[in-house]
């Protein structure tokens, strides 16, 4: 992608850059030759840089309103860059005032302050150049100045703390430290400018760590032409991480899918992909490259063809959806049988629900009161009673489950009649009912309110229940139905933390509470005799 800015926006941005560079150059001169007049020249120009920043924002708003530019991300980047440039100008003013407190500038020369200012000035010059060049590597180099300034700051801090212990030149040392901090803060602004530019050039917001990780991984795949690469967000996890398709714009070829995030989750995803392809070769995407740095990790995985079952349920014909579901129904029992272990599985559905309850009530605080219409118990009491039952039940065996078996994590490719799984970082040996109930509720919670759509959802949910019920009978699983009830209640209620529509959230919550109440009322009877009122879970 390119940084596509209307000429009026670009002009004001160049003027602001020139003003900030002038301020920085004046500060450099002040370090070399102290001057009260030069301090005044720097500190009295606050209004100028502020006005130029406001002009950039005003021109961006005008361009957006008049649709002069279809690239809203470039306009956002221009506004963000303007904010950071004005911040650097403000830091120049703070630094100029601090320089007045120094008795001598020898300390600045000794610790190489002029060299750091030259680095910042060179980076600002690169910003102006990149407005025309659209060079991703130049954008990266702008942000890398921060690393050098960080090393300078740490070295200066250590030296000054030792000098302060001698209790000589105390005021000058403190002023010098403040000045060093201002330079470090300028480096932070350069990182923000760099990331704004990279976000536009790659087509997606990305910080320096993420970009370096992407660079390392793509390079291992033999791609060096960064200007031809683009990223497009194709999904977002609930934790906020983006999943992006990496494309070579020269031949419109998919390189792979980028997944990045917390190192632990990325490592779990990697293990999940490897494990699934060992169990059922081809069911999960292949790992093309992986990288980690500190607490962050990233994977580039194979880009899979096809549509998610959620897309098919929402958009496709009933016949195509039926083919996808039938293929999945054939595959699931085979997976469960082939991965079956003798050790029992304890899903602890109510414990899962209680863990998420604070987040649910933060979104829907009225749920505490709403429960009164469905049960004589308070929410706390109902959960406590249900948990006592939940703790008594287990699956007599365990199977390898997806762990987040939502409709949008299952792909079907109609041409080759193939089912594939994605988003596998929660995969583990567990009760198969966990996957079944998550799948069913991922259909029921879709905001579909016309009769035809509700009928498709009910058919999808019922078919999954039937497959699981048949498997339970074949495997002699005596408490299948009460675990299904607990799992459905858990998923119905926890789903509401992602739904702001009050009526829809209330609908799902009420169904979950009715199920929990039904379970609690069965407390005195043997748990293997419990019968799930499944039709009551479906859309009426």
TrEMBL record:
Stretches of the chain forming a coiled coil according to its record: none
Domain Aminoglycoside phosphotransferase positions: 284-441
Origin superkingdom: Bacteria
SUPFAM superfamilies the record matches: PhoU-like, Protein kinase-like (PK-like)
Pfam families from the UniProt entry: APH (PF01636), PhoU (PF01895)
GO annotation, biological process: intracellular phosphate ion homeostasis; negative regulation of phosphate metabolic process; phosphate ion transport
Every PhoU domain range: 18-98
Keywords: Phosphate transport, Transport
Oxidoreductase listed as a keyword: no
Annotated family: Belongs to the PhoU family.
Protein name, entry field: Uncharacterized protein
Organism: Nitrincola tibetensis
Lineage of producing organism: Bacteria, Pseudomonadati, Pseudomonadota, Gammaproteobacteria, Oceanospirillales
